[in-house]
Amino acid sequence: MADEKTVLIGRCGPTVKLPKQGSRVVPLRQAAPLRVDVAGGGPVGLAFACTVKSLLGDGVSIRVHDRRWTRRGDRVVWKGAAEGNNRREQVVTLQSNVWAALPQAVRQRLFAPGKFSEMWPLGPDSPASKGRPRNIKIRWIEDCLLDMAQDVYGIEVVPEAYTAPAKFDGLHVLAIADGARSATRDAFSAQFGTPSRELFSVDGSPLDERVLGIRVTAKSPDEHTVPLTVAQNRFLFNSLGGGFINMRLTAEEASEIVALGESGPVSCIGKFGCTMRPSANGRFVCDRHRAVFKPSVDKLSYLWPRILDGLRFFGVGAADVVGITSFTLGMQQMSKFTAQLAPSTFGFLLGDAANSLHFWPGRGLNTGLKSALSLAVNLQKRWRGKDFRAADFAQHEGVMQQLQYREKSRAWTTMLMPDSEGTPRGIEDRIREGLQGPFDRAALVQAMYERVLDIKKRLGDRMGPLATDEWYYGRVNALDTRTLKVMVESGAWITREIGGEEVEVPSAETAAPAAGAEPVRRGLSLVS
User: Span 34-202+338-414: which CATH code?
Assistant: First the structure.
């Protein structure tokens, strides 16, 4: 029919042409939504899901799976210790290039008054234009994002582990963010390859470090402890009105990390990462296994006095310890982070499933969130209602490879720090040498005190007010001589060697559709 024509009625059009007589109204064909599954509902998986939803709105359908959740009434919540889930209590630092790139709604919820602090100085990944790094509790991030996924973004959250389907049936994206020991990644090893530890080995053996995590209630302003932390590599204090003192151990010290039950040692803190909490009789006991942390009750323990010395260094006492846990740190190399899992389905490694890092440089969660932001913005730019091609993710894969090189080379340098002659030395060797004599206490106090003051002066114009010189001298002079020598031998942070340019990722706030892209139309089609 020559007179027949199609007329579109939409919400945003400036004019509407009425149909000719005899026209009929039919729905305008709606573009199918992007379908996304996320394996792992930790901070990275949930941040990715919330960011994609904020960018694509109704144009995306998302499901997030995590076995650490449970359903209570009409809500999904995190399981507690009684249900076999040891919640993470660590304080983490987010660089401003990262937290400023999150969706505005996420930033507003996460950084509520009293829920974060700014103790670290400005730097390349936290420029003055965006603000200082922010300390925040990882548990608070997890709680906020799980609530937002349900209440703000309407994301489907599934309290079960993700199981790879026999057939993907129209799924476009599988984001794998279920941790360093990702079962989902292992299920697709044929597509992603097997992680290798060869590059992070010494004399053919993978280099791992055992760390003690001591959760404390702090008594000093957060910023005051920064020069103390930066001046040595034995203890790291990340605070938020409390926080964690992390202690690197030798193999001999790590052998003391034992939990004692009624009939002897039990698999507890060393195997399951349980937290030992103070009890009424002064012992540290696991809530789950009722086992006792052996060093705290062993009068012959070599480790316990060294733990107490680390607390004393930061102005904390044994009575201020809230919990003790332990974990092992190591790294592995991934060959790729993007893989085609089926003709219409692409898989992506994010967070620790992609780049599990040694946390000493403070880049673990930052790297994970950068990977999530990169993929979210990439999806928004490339999704046009049609199946993806491998070329659509070249830019994101490039970002992931940059992150792997930048952050793992940084972390590796902190594990094998160069000495004054440039020869790499593991922290374990440094600690052992520090524990051996001879000891010149006066020289050690002077060396450590001068190092702290030098760092205080260097950081002074990049952060808030610091403590007096006398306060720092009191912290140094209160230490046992052996602990002093370990700190001196461990060296100050090698900020120059691990500093430099950072990998930048696109911001969810400034993301825009690719040039020439057609927006999704909503409305009615009038067909004559």
Answer: 3.50.50.60
Q: Where are the alpha helices (DSSP H) in 122-216?
A: 138-151, 183-187, 189-192
Which pTM does this prediction carry?
0.86
* Strand 259-261 to 264-266 pairing: antiparallel
Q: Are strands 173-176 and 345-349 parallel, antiparallel or unpaired?
A: parallel
Q: Which residue has the tokens 């950084």?
A: 111
E strands along 11-97, which residues?
24-27, 34-39, 60-65, 69-72, 75-78, 91-94
Return the residue matching tokens 């060959």.
Answer: 335
**Nearest to 333, CA basis, from 354, 305, 318, 311:** 354
Tokens, residue 54:
């904020």
List the chain domain ranges.
Answer: 34-202+338-414, 210-329, 424-498
Q: What is the mean pLDDT of each run of 10 residues along the chain (528 residues)?
A: 40 39 50 94 98 96 98 96 85 94 96 93 93 95 98 97 92 96 95 93 90 89 92 92 88 93 86 86 87 93 94 92 91 96 97 84 86 97 95 97 94 86 87 90 97 93 90 96 95 88 87 41 32
Do residues 492 and 231 lie in contact, with contact meaning Cβ atoms separated by under 8 Å? yes
